[in-house]
Amino acid sequence: RAKQAHRGASQYFSAAMGTDARERFKLLKGLRMSFEDNRLFLNYQPQVDLATGRCLGAEALLRWRDEHGKFIPPDQFIPLAEQSSLIVHIGEFVLRTACFELRRILDAGHAGFRMAVNISLAQFRHANFLNSVQSAMRDSGVPATNLELEITESIAMEDPTFILRVLEEVKQLGVTVAIDDFGTGFSSLSQLRRLKVDRLKIDRAFVQEAQASEAGATIAMMVVNLGRSLGLTVIAEGIETEEQRQHLLNLGCHEGQGWLFARPQPAEQLEAWLAQEGERAAAAAAAAAPIS
Ligand code: C2E
Ligand code: MG
Ligand code: MG
Ligand code: MG
Which residues form a coiled coil (predicted)? Predict the structure, then answer.
């Protein structure tokens, strides 16, 4: 009987997997088609100084609108692309597009602007990775110091010895590195210290939990302190409210990214938003000034 029950369960399981696999295959096929038809594009989300609100840079975020106009979120298609060589080609497209946009922003006079690009493990592992970073910078004419690569904490910990080696080469180019989704990937502290990164991005789960409970507040505090004590810049992602901004600022967090400041947006919108920065600063200063 046990055997029968087992067989029943495994039949159910494989049937479910079959549907899943077919669906994944369809999605991947659609993604490949969309990529070839130039239906993938980037949005950019500003990263700001938490104390002053001044824009320091932006993160490039990949977007896919399929042939029916349906928006498919990156959390759904990137893991899929990562299972095929497609991620390498898409990743290169992201890197180059972001670098050319960075060039436009620098040309518009926003010196020091930092463009952050997400890199997945398969890209990182690819033999041509460093070359593709270098040629994206060369072809767009951006300095390495204005480019940042984001790798998730789980990637960084998956293969620390290998990652350490590539990161060293990346750093030699002058490109900065951020650990993304920090706090979710069970970093070993000694590993973290060995990876010479520039920035820790606190996952938005901690930003939300910082206010939800005392335990959440304690964890958020510890994560910020950890980053600071390693001498890193700490940036919090997913800041949606003024209370969250204030809370993280009080904890000693340096930078922020989230809907409170700006949504991910098309390049032209980001450029317009940057152009209005002076007016926003003046308005903020006026609002903060004592009423006479
Ligand atoms: P991520 O790198 O951690 O990016 C931050 C995510 O948080 C983005 O989701 C962004 O839209 C979202 N977000 C920003 N501010 C807020 C906020 O205030 N509230 C909330 N609730 N969410 C906020 P998105 O764009 O859906 O991207 C999801 C993930 O997909 C990214 O997480 C990243 O891991 C991956 N991804 C996106 N673009 C790329 C890419 O070009 N290459 C690779 N390898 N991965 C990418
Ligand atoms: Mg990221
Ligand atoms: Mg993140
Ligand atoms: Mg994430």
Answer: none
